[in-house]
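Hi support team,

I submitted a single chain yesterday and got back a structure, but I'm not sure I'm reading the C-alpha cell output correctly. Could someone confirm the output below corresponds to the sequence I sent? I've pasted both exactly as they appear in my results page.

Thanks,
R.
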Amino acid sequence: MSQYSMMIQWSDEDGLFLVTIPEFADRVVMPCTHGKTREEAIRNGEEVIEMYLEAWQVEGESIPEPNTLQTV
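Hi R., thanks for writing in. Yes, this is the structure output for that exact sequence:
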C-alpha cells in the first residue's frame, strides 16, 4: 500500500469515522471518505488513495509526495 497519511476521526454528528488524507488536502474535498467502523474507514481511505493516484497518473497530473516522519 502507499505511504500516504490518513487521519481517522470519529464524528458524533455523522455517527461515522471520517477520513482525511493530509497530502491531498489542497486537491480533494475533505473528509474524503468514511466508515461505520475504524477498520472500514481505513479500507475506504486506502481505496480512495489508490483511486486518486491512478486518476492523476492517467490524466498526467502531478502526484503529491507522501509526508514522511523526520527523525533527528
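A quick pointer for reading it: Helices lie at 38-59. Let us know if anything else looks off.

Best,
Support desk
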